[in-house]
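Field reference: "sequence" (input) and "structure" (output). Example, 7-cyano-7-deazaguanine synthase:
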Amino acid sequence: MNSSALVLFSGGQDSTTCLAWALENYERVETLGFDYGQRHDIELVMRPILREKIAPLHPHWAERLGPDHLLDLSLISSISETAMTADIDIVMQENGLPNTFVPGRNLLFMTVAAALAYRRGIDVLVGGMCETDFSGYPDCRDDTMKALQVALNLGMNTRINLATPLMWLDKSQTWELAHKLGGTALIDLIRTETHTCYLGERGKKHDWGYGCETCPACLLRAKGYMEFIARNNIFTKK
């Protein structure tokens, strides 16, 4: 077991699953979030609630969960206008990417996380990047993360590992991993407290959680949940 991990923790489904995975696999776990002017800034409200509620799910999780860090990266929204940082419609662009893609976001997130990990003596960064269920974001690809790991370690003379436990899972398998880690208690926590909707909609609760039902994140989350429930015949709280 590695000694320590820093989880990029947004307050969404994927990062919460990654936090549970890290708490199960590392002796000390810290979390890092970013305020980058995101349209769905409700996720920043949910982060501390999730940290508080996830710790008691297993006694050793409570013992391992360390400090949280929240950093201001609002420069991202000042240098790019996307559907994640501005009140504009979600559309496909001429380059084949949806305008929910925030150029350089994950690259900057990991670079800042590595700098914090250096100071905190942490040797593993955990992110929820995924190449199976995604919108073609180039900074979510396995090759990108591997290349970035090499660059960061060369630039800081370290041996930091970038762990991406969801990289080859589809969304139903991500739900399944959460269930394996924390049972129906973690599934219910993800459903009721995490936020994934790009539009920041938190007015209506669905079986799979809160959201607008129409943005790409909601559609993916709902589809994955229904497949997970059907495959496992699991019933969760309403």
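The CA atoms of residues 24 and 61 lie 7 Å apart.
DSSP finds eight helices and seven strands in the chain.
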